[in-house]
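Q: Convert this sequence to structure tokens.
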Amino acid sequence: MTDTLTPTRALIRLGWTDDDPHPATGTTLARVVVHHGTRCEVSAATSDGTLTTRTADVSPTLPVTPVAGDWVELGPDGRVIMVAARRAVLSRAGSTGRGRQVLAANIDTVLIVVPLAGGLNGAMVERLSVMAWDSGAQPVLVLSKSDTTDDGGARDATAAELLSPGVPVLPVSVRTGEGLDTLRAHLGPGTTAVMLGPSGAGKTSLLNTLEGTSEAVASVGRSGGRHTTTTRRLHLLASGGVLLDIPGIRSLEAAADRSAVDDVFTDIAALAPYCRYTDCGHDGDLGCAVEEAARTGTLPVARLVTWHKLQGEIAYRRRRENPAEMADTRRQWKAVSKHARRNRR
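A:
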């Protein structure tokens, strides 16, 4: 890829903002397109403003692994010698069950892509919204394959607005073109966006339709789609923005802060102050306003069920990452079990 701009405009074309780093003397500022083991594909501007993409070796002394969207410094020999501080990252639960895996860095917008073929998956909307809010970027909910519904996804969009309050909801179809112009408006100059969704949601098809690209699209059978995108790539869009295309999410296990859950479950967060106890767990506690709302129908029971699952997963991961807390929890359960055995005698 080669494109000629002024040096500053070239960096801006890559998504650079005033909040991002300036290159140190003797180094070149570049942005990671994709990371492959000990090498990265990076885009950088030359002194005459030419924007090029090339392969760069990664220094073995780097404290962090570069990911798509990272700003990095290239040394005189062209190697990646530093990864700049990240201002917003999309992450998921690590494959080992500990810590987090960073999927994309320095993002402004998270496009949550949820397919409507087969009906709206409310739990998926809620869980992916938690991941998006946790990144620090602005979520936008894209309801793909709206042409598979009889009303262009209108009813599903109304339902989704209740599931993820404060998030723009866009029914979109690559077949009819519905919603594509509105989607492009979220991908303007200076914006770095990332698409987040399960396999088969239509993320790569959206990319192909928006920009006329030719990324491979996997076939989808009755059991659903397989992973179309196997690496994380950075695309420069005609609308002026930058789009990161990452692999589909296999696991929706929560790896977020509790504040991100509150951002999605604003209805539960609004009811919580009316509970009798400030540390109410909304699970059989006396005087619980949240459970009362669920009992009377003011709060959908499914919302409370998902909230409990997310809170449980977050607490479990926190214990796994804190050996002392895990040991304390085991001691508590051991005491409970011992007490139960005594009572059975």
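The first strand starts at residue 2 and ends at 4.
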